[in-house]
Amino acid sequence: MNHQSDAVLTFKLYSCFQKIILVFLPGMLIVQTAIAQDNTAYHNGMVVCATPEASKVGLDILKKGGNAVDAAVTVQFALEVTHPEAGNIGGGGFMVYRANTGNTNTLDFREKAPARATTNMYLDSAGNVIPDMSISTHQASGVPGSVDGMVEAHNKYGSLKWASLVQPAIDLARNGFKISAKLASALNHNRGQFIKLNEGKNYLLKDGDWKEGDLLVQEDLAKTLELIRDNGRDGFYKGKVADELIAEMNKGNGLIAQTDLDNYHSVWRKALTGTYKGYKIIAMPPPSSGGIALLQLLHSVEPYSLKRMGHNADSTIRLMTEAERRVYADRSKYLGDPDFFKVPVDSLLNPAYIDSRMKSFSWSAATPSTSIEPGKFVGYESDQTTHYSIVDKQGNAVSITTTLNDSFGSKIFVSGAGFLLNNEMDDFSSKPGVPNMYGVTGGKANSIQPNKRMLSSMTPTIVEKNGKLFMVVGTPGGSTIITSVFQTILNVIEFNMDMQQAVSAKRIHHQWLPDDVETEREALDSTTINALQQKGYKVVSRGTIGRVDAILVTTDGYQGGADPRGDDTALGF
After folding, report:
1. Which residues pair with 399 in a beta bridge?
2. Higher model confidence: residue 441 or residue 329?
């Protein structure tokens, strides 16, 4: 395939083909590797995201001369239509941006607690957490930030007209698109909840089960998107859509009021930066915990020869697990919204501090999480998602992770407007020491307060090599986001994988509590599992971990990695 070709490539299909070649025709390995490099390298731009429809309209924007941020706006709204599990206008997220000049910036469009929120709002009279109140009720929703975030990003960096960037999503919603087998399964699985929580509404429902290839039309959502197209921020935070959102809140005793919508604003924040073996890591600052945690993890393992140990070898798994348990312990205490809580960023990223945390690591036996507490420093004052990576012809890059929190958020639709409410309030610590839906434990730093942004694990990241763009990476996955990005970066730098191999490789996860080493099925062989168990590690098999979408800059051009765990698609031209 010519580098200038308009043909598109779904990398996950190639990945499967490559595996067949390796197993059955080893003699052709060199030839097929050369073909793969030619097929996957593009010079003019690349979009990698959760659905082929969103990737296509994003790529179309790049072809029309739009830049990476223009394409990001289009992809964001298209994912609202084609990836309702996590794509959203009713949620929020983070953007890490790197211009081709090397200048960086980050945009925090994370949701906020409504002004009427209270610290103990999810506790009963006995002080116990009320089950599901922060997950599947109107009170679970934070003030949405995605629309404001896209407007802010476009105002600062966009080049094409706003209306032209929103129109593709309107077309997808009004004309419909053919759903995948995975989306059909998700819609069928959640049918009961959609009906239970949305009396009188008929969104994402049909007579009988959804099947692959069925046409999904969303007319109310199309009308909402038209108002956003024509009025920008005011099309969502004022007028008809805002009225419908407030009416929905009133119907279910929700807390979001018009003043919350009026007062919501995204925040530009200085990027966090660090290094790993000569590579520069550009990451998201708090209220994302991802940037700090990723930089801590990379520094923790930097002194060791992971390349010599080998990918997913027992020694590699032990090292990563011990680093992860210490980092997640710190996360539970020290990370929160920096506008409300003094996050000790410099202390957490101090190399001497990170080194001191790893001193208790021993190759002889696992360190029980019960013996690990958040670290201490002098002078400290008492902290279902989707991702897309885009690079344009000029080399501008964006890494954006955005979310409703749980799959389909609260599963409650805004009547008349056709979009889902988030359940991001669950990302606060409803009660210190009590895990949220992802099993993550938090503390006072992430307590609920009016107008406060909840802590997040989202980890959109950009990597430089020798001062030039090298990688754009991120993933959904709740608490596994941080460790998935961590492993993907290591897969390329330490284990010499190409972008698709690095994204496809099986993953593991540890988050301090519970004290389990979670592994994707077939990630580890029986010998490795036995070796870990003999050292005191509890290995637990689980389903998929993360859905990484990433771009690698090679000497041949942009190389995409679209996660085969979903419908994710990498398109370039």
Report:
1. 96, 389
2. 329
pLDDT band at 25 (very low <50, low <70, confident <90, very high): very low
Taking every pair of Cα atoms in the chain, the longest distance, rounded to a whole number of angstroms, is: 70
CA distances in angstroms from 207 to 191, 204, 412, listed in the order given: 11, 11, 20
Rounded Cα distance between 61 and 75, Å, is 9
Picking from 70, 525, 476, the residue whose alpha carbon sits closest to that of residue 290 is 476
User: Would you mind telling me the total number of residues written for the chain in this entry?
Assistant: 573
Active-site annotation holder among 82, 385, 403, 483 = 385
Residue-wise pLDDT tens digits, 154-183: 999 999 999 999 999 999 999 999 999 999
Q: Are 123 and 447 in contact (CB under 8 A)?
A: no
Per-residue pLDDT, averaged over 44-54, amounts to 98
For residue 451, the one-letter residue type is N
Residue 276 CA to residue 302 CA, distance in Å, equals 7
Tokens of 224: 């909402």
Between CA 458 and CA 441 the distance in angstroms is 16
Contact 407, 214 (CB under 8 A): no
Cα(262)–Cα(298) distance, rounded to whole angstroms?
40
Q: For the chain, how big is the Rg over CA atoms in Å?
A: 22
pTM for the full predicted model: 0.91
Instruction: Let me know if 441 is a catalytic residue.
Output: no
3-state secondary structure of 87: coil
Domains observed in the chain: 52-91+112-266+385-446 (no CATH), 269-383+458-572 (3.60.20.40)
Structure tokens, 221: 């959502």
CB–CB of 487/321 below 8 Å?
no
Question: Tokens for 541?
Answer: 């098999």
Angle (nearest 5°) at CA 262 between 115 and 94: 80
Average pLDDT, the chain: 91
DSSP symbol at 180: P
Query: Tell me: the pLDDT tens digits for 224-245?
Result: 999 999 999 999 999 999 999 9
> Which residue reads 């700090």 in tokens?
292
- H or E segment to which residue 137 belongs: none
Strands (E), 110-226: 177-178, 215-216
Whole-number Å distance between alpha carbons of 492 and 506 = 14
How far is the C-alpha of 485 from the C-alpha of 298, rounded, in Å?
11
